[in-house]
Amino acid sequence: MFTGIIESLGTIRRIETHGEGKVLTIACDLDLSGTGIGDSIAVNGACLTAVSLGKGQFKVDMAPETVSRTTFSSIGPGARVNIERALKLSDRIDGHLVSGHIDGTGVVSKIETRSNAIIYDIQVPENLADEMIEKGSVAIDGISLTINQCRQNGFSISIIPHTAKITTIGFKNVGDQVNIETDMLGKYVKKFLSGQGKSAKSANDAGADADSDISMSLLARNGFL
What we know:
Blueprint: E1 8-18, E2 21-27, E3 40-43, E4 46-54, E5 57-62, H1 64-69, E6 80-85, E7 104-114, E8 117-123, H2 126-129, E9 137-140, E10 143-151, E11 154-159, H3 161-166, E12 177-182, H4 184-194, H5 200-205, H6 216-221
Antiparallel strand pairs: 1-2, 1-6, 2-5, 3-4, 3-6, 4-5, 7-8, 7-12, 8-11, 9-10, 9-12, 10-11
């Protein structure tokens, strides 16, 4: 589990390809003395397992599923990446709960400077946009950010200069891909309210239509109103 508060910028030093999987060697300036082999490290928001640790660098394995769902399918040596070590239960959660399991990718469609803020428009598939709400949370390349506005196929975020300086979001240009993880709590609520996972029997026993959409009566029945 992570918070989306980036600890360091790393650099990909080497990429080894093993079939559809990959092994990345990543250099960073974090003190890794408290990190062990098998520990989780978020790299651009993807939860990966450290398989080797050295002075100022570490290696992570990437399964084919991870490669196919993320921007790591096209990343190359020299690319900068966001690094965050796993959350300790005693830590403050300054961002939001981030699992490190990427839901898909988005594309930067517009960048605009407004006063001291940088506004990014991100285009995403409609199924990801459905899991977002205005002023809700989203992780972009592992960065915990607040959604300004939602659209049917995208959303916008506002970045302060500090965030642009210490994370990879400041390097992004129009057309660049980013990893997206939508809010974990939002996904659970969406599944619960839409009745996904219910058997026809349990739906009938509850006197509900298994294929019904979210309605005011459904919200009231489940204690949301």
